[in-house]
Structure to design on (225 residues):
């Protein structure tokens, strides 16, 4: 069962524009994480936000978390062609189970 | 260099021929896990291990086995592969368990004919 669902499924923008991806989940969580995957390669961790945090920044990335709405967003500012990848959110079940659940991802295409 | 390695990276095999995909990490992580990735279905967890000799099922464990005899290694075993196990497989490890940052291997693309 999917805990996290990203939206949109695909996003195409021009270089320099901002990209926003959303993630919704179903149960309470400890943390929510965002990962990036270049085509067919391993996932790379981008950022982790704890359930008691509302916003977190890392370079050009900004992540927000709204636990009342069970949703998170990932904003990439001033996007570059090298940001072209799939982006996944991952959540736990508040620690009640031992596994991390990934969404199906948002495929971002940044055109030069 | 801190990393998770998987072997082989590509494998084509036939139905029923037992195979093992190895996974090794050099970061002394307690937590390791296996995922499969299929188009339209995203990543789904197969098995995970909290520590040596401690393993548990993820969301899609049928047809797979794992073992954790050493901290650094977590092999994935397909005793009798079938075509529906054709997929891209990832191993991951973490210092802080499943709620912490996961380090992923490069992936193993398996085709079962």
């Amino acid at each position: 069962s999917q805990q996290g669902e990203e939206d949109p499924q695909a996003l195409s923008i021009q270089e320099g524009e901002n990209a926003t991806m959303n993630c919704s989940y179903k149960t309470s969580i400890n943390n929510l994480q965002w990962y990036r995957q270049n085509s067919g390669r391993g996932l790379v961790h981008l950022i982790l936000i704890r359930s008691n945090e509302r916003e977190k920044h890392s370079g050009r990335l900004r992540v927000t978390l709204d636990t009342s709405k069970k949703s998170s967003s990932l904003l990439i500012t001033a996007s570059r062609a090298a940001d072209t990848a799939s982006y996944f959110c991952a959540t736990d079940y508040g620690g009640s189970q031992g596994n991390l659940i990934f969404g199906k991802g948002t495929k971002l295409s940044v055109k030069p | 260099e801190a990393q998770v390695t998987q072997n082989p990276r590509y494998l084509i095999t036939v139905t029923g021929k037992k195979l093992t995909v190895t996974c090794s990490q050099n970061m002394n992580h307690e937590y390791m896990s296996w995922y499969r990735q299929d188009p339209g279905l995203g990543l789904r967890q197969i098995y995970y291990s909290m520590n040596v000799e401690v393993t548990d099922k993820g969301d899609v464990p049928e047809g797979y086995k794992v073992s954790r005899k050493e901290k650094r290694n977590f092999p994935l075993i397909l005793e009798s592969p079938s075509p529906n196990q054709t997929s891209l497989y990832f191993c991951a490890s973490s210092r802080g368990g499943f709620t912490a940052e996961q380090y992923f291997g490069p992936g193993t693309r398996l085709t079962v004919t």
